[in-house]
Design goal:
The structure holds two protein chains of two kinds. Chain A has two domains: about 220 residues, Rossmann fold; about 80 residues, Nucleic acid-binding proteins (OB fold (Dihydrolipoamide Acetyltransferase, E2P)), CATH 2.40.50. The longest helix of chain A has 17 residues. The two termini of chain A are about 40 Å apart. By secondary structure, chain A is α+β, with helices and mostly antiparallel strands. In chain A, strands 6-7-8-3-9-10 form a six-stranded mixed beta sheet, with helices on both faces. Chain A has a five-stranded antiparallel beta sheet with strand order 13-17-14-15-16, with no helix packed on it. Chain B is an all-alpha fold. Chain B has one domain: MetI-like (MetI-like fold), CATH 1.10.3720. Chain B is about 75% helix and about 0% strand. Chain B contains eleven helices and no strands. Classes of the chains: A alpha+beta, B mainly alpha. Chains A and B meet through strand 6 and helix 2 of A and helix 6 and helix 7 of B.
Chain lengths: ~325, ~230
Amino acid sequence: MDVRVAHLALDRGARRVLDIDALDFPAGSVTAVFGPNGSGKTSLLRCIAGLERPRGSVTIAGEPVRRGDPRVAFAFQESVFLHDTVRANLALGLALRDIPRLERDGRIADMAEECGLAAVLDRPARSLSAGEAQRANLARTLALAAPITLLDEPLSGFDRIGRARMLEEIPALLATHATTAIIVTHDREEAFRLADRLVLLVGGRVAAVGPAGPLYRRPPDAVTARLLGHTVIELDDRTIGFPPGALRRGPGEPGFRVVVVREVDMGNHRHLIGRFGTGPGAVAVELRLDPDEPGAAPGEDLLVHPAHWTEFGRG
Amino acid sequence: MGELAAGLGDAFRLLLSGDAEVYAIAGRTLLISAAATALSLAIGCPAGLALARGRFRGRTLLLSLVHTGMGMPPVVVGLVLWLLITRSGPLGGLGLAYTPTAMIAAQFLIATPLVIGFTAASVQSLPPLLPDLLATLGAGRLRSLWLLLREARLGMLAAVMAGFGAVVSEVGAAMTVGGNLRGSTRVLTTAIVTATGRGDLSQAAALGIILLALAFAVTFLLTRLQQRRTD
């Protein structure tokens, strides 16, 4: 099922938190909603779940969404549970959707296995550690296998190993049920690994939409570029953006000079932190060093250029 | 102290001898107070929930009125109700004066603010996201209401206990609107007043002990329900 957002406006007091003219989520697509804190990511999910009363419309497969819409499953960022066992909490949504007991039990067992909760299923949900609670929260939502799945920062409670596993599991699970998924994250790696499309939100407005790769390689504007982790600098009268790792030592087009701040050993590689420009407008840049490349002393003046870059219009 | 000890003896004697009138009074007390508490729950729970979750003008004012009502002197409630149902009052035609129904109504008015206040407080202490969570899990309006109240059950059972405790032990309203008629509106508290007035102190003490035992038994059952561990 597809989700269509049209002429959406949501106010909190005097503040407009969402202002979206048109935004579509095609059936079966997985979209990452990416943006800085306070950009309206969670509010957008809440509108799509029917939990807010915005102006404009949100439709799922052509039908307006309503509060408690059974087509939507929502994993909130905050893990909230009823005073009951983990198992009972996972079962509640399935029971409310009239899933037969036998299938319910099967799905709970599967999701508990996937999310590393098998050992705590019969514990009180409110006794879980923060990480376990986040996983139970995600499991509860994914077990519903709803046509529309909304995940708000789903991996914040996982450790490195669990996170790596879920980065593989979540896309597989979503694909199994041909779910249209919308995932809010502020982690670029998560966005790229979980989703095939990006929606960038800035100040409640859509700054960019598109497949993640091309958007990263050719950001449409400086705001998008910065959000995706690019370095953006003003060079004479041009605005230039380049992704991490693009900077090279030596002359080139467009070349510029940076002052070395310090050298950082990251283990598998070293890089130089440099400063471009002076005063409050100075921009920190990163210059990746090859293993046998000599470093540079702090204060040294280096001529550098980006191997690939994007030029933006003024504005 | 002699009366109290004699009362204790009398209480046991009255209970064991199967004194029909004492049993009738105790049963009537339980029935009237339970009915009043049940009614106040039926009205007070949804009202408390609405006050806790609603965002409307005058909410704080309403909540303050409820909180004031929680400490209302029963005899004042009884008086106001009496002025309404007395033969010359606006509701005089209903013929409610000196009936158990009038007593239930009076006790309902006493218990309801307590139930509303306790319900509102316990629902407000739940995680604010809970209603949204229940909605997205697929709970409809009534189901959500039920699950929310169940989540707030510690406070809810406190509401039941406070409501029942207040009405089973009050005497002012029961006396005013019920009139303490033997065989129809005499309850334990009014019977105690009568026995005391008569100077039959050991009878009064016996009835008092029965009242305490009754209140304790009901509260004990509710407390067990409240403290049953599900987490």
